[in-house]
Protein: Olfactory receptor
Organism: Galeopterus variegatus
Amino acid sequence: HTPMYYFLSNLSFLDICYTSTTMPVLLANVFQEKKTISYEGCLSQLFFFVTFAGTEGVLLAAMAYDRYVAICRPLQYPVLMSMKVSVCLMTGSWLCGLANSVTHTALTATLTLCGPNQISHFLCDVPLLLKLSCSDTCVNKSVLYVASATIGLSPCLFTAVSYALIISAILRISSAEGRIKAFSTCASHLTVVVVFFGTAIFNYDRPDVGYSLDVDILISMLFCVVTPMLNPIIYSLRNKEIKVALKKLAGKHGFSSEISI
């Protein structure tokens, strides 16, 4: 019942949701000769995928702020990161993701598709649908660039600045044990941030030329599947409280290495 675990529970929920928007269709098409998705289903997938992915980016920035306050302002932590503040940050993350998704989905729905309506990918995403349109997409592309800067780049920069301040504060700690303990509190989140924003930037902000379709699909698979799968593993392996809880759970259900006589 602390802000960090409140954010972690929402992060876990987001990972489940935005993986579930792409994987069922992908798995279904693996066993079908004709791999299709309805136009309504494509827009629905686009809406939920952009919502959850955008929300997660902003949420990771909020978690970086939580770590900054915990390490750089420890005495003010109960005030700066109260439950009310945590709820506001979480609500703001969802609202940002939802507003971004509604805008993109509404603009994409107005496009005229002129065939053959074939996407060489396993999901429906905004850049892919823009390529299928024969109508003017200047507004769509402009909004996409603005969204990349506000929902994508801004949380990334905010997170980078937060960790620059965190690392600076850690290096000022006199004892080596204190530095290790302080860094361990944010190592898991830093790992998740690097994986998430690294794959997201490569997926959306790289040049349109110079990459094969196989590489494009591989990076998208890392972003949509591997990253959310790694998140709980990273936090479990790096988190002392979760390790203790797992040991208690194993002992409670009789998975102990000791034998009672």
